[in-house]
Amino acid sequence: MRHFDYNAGEMFAEEVPLAQIAAEVGTPVYVYSTATFTRHYRVFADSFADTKALIAYSVKANSNIAVLATLAAQGAGADVVSGGELKRALAAGIPAEKIVFSGVGKTRREMHQALTADIHVFNVESLAELRVLNEVALALGKMAPIAFRVNPDVTAGGHAKISTGKKENKFGIAWSQAEDAYAEAARLPGIRIVGVDVHIGSQISDLAPFEKAILKVSGLIKRLRAAGHTITSFDIGGGLGIPYGNNAAVPPPPSEYAALVKRLTRDLDVEMIFEPGRMIAGNSGVLLSEVLYVKRGEDRDFLIIDAAMNDLLRPALYDAYHDIEPVRQGDLDQMETYDVVGPICESGDTFTKGREMPKLESGDLVVLHSAGAYGAAQASQYNTRPLVPEVLVNGAEYAVIRSRPTVEDILKTESFPDWLTKHENVTDI
Ligand SMILES: *Cc1c(COP(=O)(O)O)cnc(C)c1O
User: Fold this and answer.
1) Which sequence spans correspond to the domains of the chain?
2) How far apart are CA 239 and CA 252, in angstroms?
3) Are 252 and 268 spatial neighbours (Cβ–Cβ below 8 Å)?
4) Best mutation site among 79, 148, 159, 234 for ligand 1, i.e. most ligand atoms within 8 A of its Cβ?
């Protein structure tokens, strides 16, 4: 069931009319559905109910603490990629023993923070990082639990910028170097080997690359065990794609993914770790925006809306497709074709070109669907557009879970150096 849908010609998020949120919070604004987050998490978790599995939600997809707390209440762990995300996950009530720490460039400070918190495992991506982690752990009198993220050299992912499992990508330990890396880790007194980790890409729409990666890593796990290493966990990352509503390949449902994973890992006797992000959050949110102007051009019409690439970067960054619909259900007999664009001074600030949709006018509201993952989390204040706020709906209620800063808030973080304040034409902000 869709939790962003029309009721009597008007689009709702669960039981709240989007027009009400637009009027009360202002636009642009992200609107999330608790029921959708919960359902996506449950679909994933329930398909692994009979397996020893940790579902570590990938915080970077949507890192709002209210979203994290919603998932924590369902039993989710977290996959974090920075000390900031670690702090968020802990603040939202995700227990440290359910947190995994990924990323190619962890700092000493972040390692210290995660070791002090006693997280579940570090996914280590290089020997250089391993040696630093060993030092930081020894200084704290601890042993750091690690898995190496290995790079299985498989092709996967919906776009070059989100493909991570090829050898030319910066991620993971090169396949040919993996066994030597484990041998070195076993010699370091501040390191405790617990598992193997892969993450091959994002928006993956077929199971074949997962199958390839799992088969390769299963072989590696057997070789590592034969070499005397204790391997108790196998983290297969995230990456399962979601339908965006266009004609692109529709990804398999989580149940098929789960069946494949279970079939291929049954005999390994490991704890499975998953790091789903987009699959949980992507279709749990929309970006709600108001039409500012319809500009009739020479050969095309532009729908200029008040959301822009700084609020939702995906179309500019990944050529991503988002379904766009009017909040007040349009007249299907009156279709028009628009380039939907934002107000930012970049041609890249284009959400779509030549999209057919019901006729819209200045003041109408639109939603950009499938914006719950890699939306608000990637937003910036480019063009001094205050960070887009976020709203979480729960049945008939809603709450603002990130407020819109004022321009004064933004200016407060900036200051004049001494040599400029001496000029009389510089005014106090
Ligand atoms: C981004 C990321 C994920 C989540 O990927 P999705 O495609 O959103 O599921 C999981 N693990 C790691 C290491 C990541 O970088």
Assistant:
1) 4-31+282-411, 34-279
2) 12
3) no
4) 79
The Cα–Cα gap between 14 and 2 comes to 8
Of 37, 51, 54, 122, residue with least CA distance to 86: 122
Sign of CA dihedral 36, 40, 45, 46: positive
Domain 4-31+282-411 sits in which CATH superfamily? Lyase, Ornithine Decarboxylase; Chain A, domain 1 (2.40.37.10)
Give residues (CB < 6 A) around ligand 1: 58, 60-61, 79, 102, 199, 202, 237-239, 275-279, 373
Q: What is the per-residue pLDDT across 356-374, written as a single tens digit (0 to 9) for each?
A: 999 999 999 999 999 999 9
Q: Is cis: bond before 28, omega within 30 of 0?
A: yes
Ligand 1 centre and the CA of 305: distance in Å? 30
C-alpha 237 – ligand 1 centre gap (Å): 6
Set 1, 8, 49, 345: catalytic member: 345
The answer to whether residue 13 scores a pLDDT higher than 70 is yes
**162 is annotated as an active-site residue:** no
Looking at the domain that runs over 34-279, which CATH code has it been given?
Answer: 3.20.20.10
